[in-house]
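To the wet lab folks,

You asked to see what we're planning to order before we commit. Fair enough. Below is the target structure as tokens, and below that is the sequence we designed to fit it. If anything looks off to you, flag it before the synthesis order goes out.
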């Protein structure tokens, strides 16, 4: 299928899309503020996948390569939109609330995804990169061109905001 896609075979491309789009759409949903935005990320991602298939080396997992590419597309689209108005530096924070790491236990993935989508963009991106993707604050700072302290404060604020949203559900 990959070889056929590299040659531009439309049927193989459709098969690739059908096979991987549900999982990759889930990735997009975590970074997007709406379903529509997630669909845009997914569409852009598949365009990039088809254009960059020649770069895939079968030494690693194909699905992991797709996943990483989709995360990068989401981050790229967010940077392009220049919606970083919601970022808060550590200097702006006073009495930042302590937030427990297990605030999400007992809630379903769909509920949490919907709540994460409600976060301001800066919070949402840092939350996903740190909690879901496993990046360090140093790596996040480099990826987003922010300071480590901004990454930490946005994660803290994201968790505090999610806690408030979860308390409303309970």
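Sequence we intend to order:
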């Amino acid at each position: 299928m990959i070889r056929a896609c590299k040659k531009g075979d439309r049927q193989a491309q459709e098969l690739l899309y059908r096979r991987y789009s549900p999982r990759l759409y889930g990735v997009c949903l975590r970074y997007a503020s709406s379903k529509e935005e997630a669909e845009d990320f997914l569409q852009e991602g598949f365009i990039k996948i088809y254009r960059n298939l020649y770069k895939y080396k079968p030494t690693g997992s194909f699905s992991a390569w797709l996943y990483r590419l989709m995360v990068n597309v989401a981050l790229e689209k967010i940077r392009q939109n220049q919606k970083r108005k919601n970022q808060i530096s550590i200097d702006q924070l006073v009495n930042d609330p302590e937030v427990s790491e297990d605030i999400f236990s007992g809630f379903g993935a769909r509920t949490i995804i919907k709540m994460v989508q409600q976060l301001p963009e800066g919070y949402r991106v840092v939350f996903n990169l740190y909690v879901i993707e496993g990046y360090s604050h140093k790596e996040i700072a480099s990826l987003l061109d922010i300071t480590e302290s901004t990454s930490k404060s946005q994660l803290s604020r994201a968790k505090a905001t999610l806690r408030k949203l979860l308390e409303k559900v309970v």
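Structural context that might help your review: The chain has two domains: 2-81, 85-169. Residues 85-169 form a domain with the Arc Repressor Mutant, subunit A fold (CATH 1.10.10.10).

Thanks,
Computational group
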